[in-house]
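Reopening this ticket.

The earlier resolution said the output was attached, but the attachment link was broken on my side. Pasting everything inline this time so it's all in one place.
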Amino acid sequence: MIRRRTLIATALASQAIPRMAWAQSSAFSRPLKIIVPLQAGGSADISTRLIANSLQHRLKQPVIVDNKPGGSFVIGMQALAMAPADGQTLISINTGMLASQVTMKRYDMLKSLALITQYSKTPTLFVVPAQSRFKTFAELIAFAKKKPGKLNFGSLGTGGLEHLWVTMLSRSVGAEFTHIPFKGMPDAITALVQGELDFVPCVMSSALPFVQKGMLRALCVLSDERSAFLPDLASMKEQGVNVPPMEFWSGLAARQGTPLPVIEQLRQEIVKVMAEPDMKLRMDERGATILTSANSDNFSTLLKADWSWMNKVAQDASIRAEIAG
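Inline output:
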């Protein structure tokens, strides 16, 4: 009897092991797709392609990057909504996408997405023309408080991240700035270099080359701490301004309803990808710091915190989105 029970248990175990192995591997038994809701060639697209390249080697499956620009990220979100909630189709998300949600209200990232992980954080520089009279962030703020509306700034459009953040800044410090929207950051940077703008809050990867060439001057990094990429540059907090930082985070998500074990397996794989030495080198080149989420709830907390200040600014200032996708 004992021998018979042992044989039965062994047989059941031998059947269970293949099922467990299948369950662990079946989530990635087909090619994966990552939707980038922006044009090819930009910062988000480049980062996503780096991740896709490493991920396909790890999963032994093709990982396709599918650019779906337009509609201020709406077209990309619609493409994800049409895909099965099985973890085979992901979407690249970022801070600017959240700002668009707040001011457009045409999609809800927290309700529509199963968040996987943040993968990087890029600090933002507060830059002025090289010939600007302002040597510090505090000097610029003091001038703006005395002469409301005299200083202008560029952004990616009404309702975009830069516009929301500067609006929050102006209300916090009692200053007033004139907003000039642009279709793209390269256009805003060009106008700043030529002295047509007084300042631009700009992601480090876009501003740093101009700062290094002496074409722009960085007054501070818009974070609570200094950046390892510019250790001598003071933080916004050191300049006496205490408002939420303007940092550009990037991450990946799947469609809401994707099984939690699949989300967790994807998170673990992406964390391993971001830990590769070559990935750190490539992100360093763009002024980005690798930062992954310990779990999807941590990523959700980040989105909720940013949504909170963005939504308050948009409501208080009655800002509606007019940004290009």
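Reporter confirms the inline version is readable. The radius of gyration is 23 Å. The chain has a mean pLDDT of 88.
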